Amino acid sequence: MVFENPLLLGAIGAGLAVGIAGLGSGIGAGITGASGAGVVAEDPNKFGTAIVFQALPQTQGLYGFLVAILILFVFKSAPEWAMLAAGIGTGLAGLSAIGQGIASAAGLGAVAEDDGIFGKAMVFSVLPETQAIYGLLVAILLLVGVFASPGVTTIAALGAGLAVGFAGLSGIGQGITAAGAIGATARDPDAMGKGLVLAVMPETFAIFGLLIAILIMLGIMF
Amino acid sequence: MRPARMNKIRAVILDEKVDPVIRQLHESGLVELYDLSTKLEDPEWNALMLPAPSAEYGRNVASLTIKVSRILDLFSNVSVGEKAGLSGVLNPKVPAKKKLSFSSSEEITSYIENVLESVEGEISEPASKLAELENRKTILETLKDSVKYLSGFDLDLKFLGEGSYTYIVSGLVSQENMSELESSLEEATEGYVEIVKGNPVNKSEKEQKIPVIVATLKQCADVVGAELRKSGFERLDIANVEGTPSEIFNDTEKELLGIENETKAILEKLNALSQKWTDEVLVLHEVLEIEKERAEAYSMTGKTERTHLIEAWTPKKHVKKVQEIIESASEGYAVVEVSEPDEPVERIPVMLDNAKAVKPFEMLTEMYAPPKYNEIDPTMMIMPGFLIFYGIMLTDAVYGLLLTLAGLVLWTRMGKVSSGAYNLGYILTLSGLSTVFFGILTGGYLGDFMYQFLGMDIYTTGFALVNPLGESTYISAAKPLLSLGGIDVNNGPMAILLFSIVAGIIHLFIGLTVGLKESLSNGSVLDAFLNQGMWILLILAIVATVVTGNMMIAGGAVIAVIALCMIKGFMNGGILDALLGAMDITGFLGNVLSYARLLALCLATGGLAMAVNIMAKLLGDAVPVIGILIAVVMLVFGHAFNFVMNGLGSFIHSLRLHYVEFFGQYYEGGGKKFSPFKAKREYTSN
Q1: CB contacts < 8 Å between A and B, how many?
Q2: Out of A59, A130, A193, closest to residue B597 by CB
Q3: Does the structure show a pLDDT above 70 at B445?
Q4: Is the CB of residue B173 less than 8 Å from the CB of residue B163?
Q5: Residues of chain B neighbouring A120 (CB-CB closer than 8 A)
Q6: Residue B403 contacts by C-beta under 8 Å, 6 or more apart in sequence?
Q7: Do residues A67 and A19 touch, judged by C-beta distance below 8 A?
């Protein structure tokens, strides 16, 4: 125990989870919102569509909020470093919302031109959320106490959180690719498959992060 | 499992008999006409026949369409219309179809002209009266506006304009130009001018203008006009009125009021007429649209002196019927030939051909891309995976029930008029049922609502199999589900994670097997092995490792696969590609790990529902008296939000797993959809 009350580190983790993820979601939703305002000015009927697209980058903030609640109310007895790492991982991975915001803005723009592309634009816009989901996944694994290795109970846990968190920033790159792919698909609906392949590439790095996080948690190191 | 097999139908038909053939094919909706115009540019074909023009009756149809559209416009303008309302949207009325059948364009034209005559007979008088009233209204309103500025003057406005000796004009001058104008007018007319100023008025926020009346001698009119123009004088056009401004103002207002009443009466009359005739006119409109399509269909055919050549695609199962239609409609004056597709595959139209229970899921396939003609149709394989994944990701019995109800409304009510709503409603209903199933399995009823508010922990009872956030009666540290390589699967999250990965591996395995079969039938055994076969072996090796506990099997397989990937890369493009090929294994790993989102999203729904419950409880306990009310509001809005967010999220993530991970193994898509030559009938039936 570093501190008398182990929840102290947990509280910092909860704060970082809500804070950083909220930052990402705020920026992402802002980017989509700006596009939405333009679309609604052209066609007020598109308000509902704009709201749906703007909802996508907000999920990261929700995941941050969820992990904070889990730390503070449910898994209070988890190892202290695990709590901090869970918060940091979810928070940083939540910055993928910036990328998702970029993709959603492009998706909304495409739908404003052609309603028929709604489903495809949705699929592309949701790609950069994977990173945040990996963050959430690692946070849960850290908290539920499946692993009792030094990778969870010591300061090493921070490594797991940082790995999945920073690798989660690949979501920004993925969002940019997805935005481009939406443009391509809007022009040629057959481009969807190839666009998906390109847009999934940046996810590789999130998977590396997830993998390293799992190895650390399993205690397979040194 | 494949798109419907297609045949090409080629028919040579005698001129006089073409029209009934086109009509009946259009009604049947079984064929897609093949546009011959490009083919006929070929000199060899061109020597035989020419591209046919659109049918002559098309022009007639176009002019009637304009008339009908104009009437519909008028009706939509005058309809005060009862608002459709929520119940109207949720349960739309299906218009009664009017039974009409015609055998020739002349019949249609005369029918439409007949109906139009009686419609126009009734509406033309009130319609022109309405136009007249609207005209008069604009005139009066401009007059009223002009006269308003002159309200301070006590002058009979009939004197405005040119008299026998005088010229009087009224208008507005901006304040700063006033004195300059006065002096210049004085000078130009040598004093024969009288300027009467009124009280300044605000024309807009910034500028104040002064209404003036300028009187001068007739012979000075030209110079006065020139000076006025120079000063930015804004002339008020008032003519043919009599009386002082305020009298006129009052008169116009009175007349406007009269016009308004009259307009109202006429609108009511027209509205009654529109209620009486709208359905009938919509029928006409539809008949004309159908007729227009037929007329245009001619331009896809080829023409010799006495015959037409029609080519069309039709699904194999309809060939007989199409043949019969052509032969009976042409009364035998036709030669029909059926052949196998003679075009490159990408030009053959693709019609998905699934059982009725699966058909709505074609929507999901087509959202990605319809399959190529010789490719497998993945719809059947999407259905089970999509529903299972959806259910796991949303996992809440109450949310599932809500979704089922919403889906049912969409499917059975709105689906009556929209096929999109029908398909989506069907998919959502099944997804909802799947969610209810998994919700019960994981004990999710509005999250942990029962625990927070009723104090009942369902996971200590036998009613829930897994607890996504911890231990349950069946899976706990005391009762681990199983033990894998040193990790005990002894709580809910681990059990769900294990399930997710296993489901992912099975899903990928299915995709790879299908892909292997496709590759084997299309190409070499080597390609099939390098594209799918080795991954299948890798999965089998992993399974063997788990069963036997011997890590060597999986390790060896991984090394072998990496080597094979490098060889494949080398064959494709040298050293660099070989190095990149080594990365393929991480792609495969990524595909498997991607299914871990099932756990994360399952927890996100349950966890956020729990967060809503916790907050509602805190609020309810903290605020005295009205706390309960606030807690209820929090619960309703919180759960509604969570339901919508995660319902949407589960839908797209379930789709993503299919589009990216599953399709990646075997599906490409990109076929041309079969678009039948079919009469769209909403208000009529044949």
Answers
A1: 113
A2: A130
A3: yes
A4: no
A5: 367-368
A6: B394, B428, B429, B431, B432, B435, B643, B647
A7: no
CB atoms A65 and B611 under 8 Å: yes
What residues contact residue A97 under an 8 Å CB cut-off, 6+ apart?
A21, A24, A25, A27, A28, A29, A57, A58, A59, A60, A61, A128, A132, A171
Q: Chain B: give the shortest CA distance to residue A119, in Å.
A: 6
Q: What are the pLDDT digits (tens) for B383-422?
A: 999 999 999 999 999 999 999 999 999 999 888 888 889 9
What ranges in B212-318 are assigned the alpha helix state H? 221-230, 245-297
Judge whether A212 is closer than 8 Å to chain B, CB to CB.
Answer: no
Residue of A1 and A218 predicted with greater confidence: A218
Contact B676, B31 (CB under 8 A): yes
Of A58, A73, A146, the CB nearest to B487: A146
> Which chain A residue has the Cα nearest residue B656?
A123
Smallest Cα distance from A134 to chain B, Å: 7
Q: For residue B210, what are its two tokens?
A: 């002064």
> Tokens at residue B94, please?
């299906």
The length of chain A in residues reads: 222
Asked if ipTM goes beyond 0.85, one says no
Q: Could you count the other beta carbons within 10 Å of the beta carbon of residue B373? A: 23
Q: What is the pLDDT of residues B183-219, one digit of tens each?
A: 888 888 887 888 888 878 776 666 778 888 888 888 8
Residue A84 has pLDDT above 90, yes or no: yes
Cβ neighbours, 10 Å, residue A91: 31
Question: What residues of A are in contact with residue B590 (Cβ under 8 Å)?
Answer: 203-204, 207
Which of B369, B470, B603 lies nearest to residue A193, judging by beta carbons? B369
* pLDDT greater at residue A129 or residue B1: A129
Q: Name the band, by pLDDT with cuts 50, 70 and 90, for residue B177.
A: confident
| Per-residue model confidence as pLDDT tens digits over B227-271 | 888 888 888 877 777 888 888 888 888 989 999 999 999 888 888
Residues of A in contact with B488 (CB under 8 A): 146
Q: How many angstroms separate the CA of residue A3 from the nearest CA in chain B? A: 26
Whether A136 contacts chain B with CB within 8 A: yes
Which residue from B minimizes the CA distance to A139?
Answer: B600
* Residues from chain A contacting residue B607 (CB–CB below 8 Å): 66, 69-70
Rounded to a whole number of angstroms, the distance from the CA of B502 to the nearest CA of chain A is 17
Residue A14, pLDDT > 90, answer yes
pLDDT at B204: 66
Assign 3-class secondary structure to B441-482.
HCCCECCEHHHHHHCCCHHHCCCCCCECCECCCCCCCCCCCE
Q: Where are the domains of chain A?
A: 4-219
Burial class (CB in 10 A: 0-12, 13-18, 19+), B453: middle
Q: Give A 44-103 residues with CB within 8 A of chain B.
A: 52, 55, 58-59, 62-63, 65-66, 69-70, 73-74
CB contact under 8 A, A69 and B491: no
What's the pLDDT tens digit per position in B144-154? Answer: 888 888 877 87
Q: Taking the CB of residue A82, how many other CB atoms lie within 10 A of it?
A: 31
Question: Positive or negative, the Cα torsion across B473, B476, B477, B478?
Answer: positive
Which of A104, A120, A144, A194 is the best substitution to test chain B (most B C-beta atoms within 10 A)?
A144
Mean pLDDT score across all residues of chain B: 87
pLDDT at B342 > cutoff 80: yes
Write down the residue that tokens 């996080």 correspond to: A213
A4-219 in CATH: which number?
1.20.120.610
CB pair distance less than 8 Å for A210 and B369: no
Tokens read off for A108: 């909304």
pLDDT in tens, B270-304: 888 888 888 888 899 999 999 999 999 999 999 88
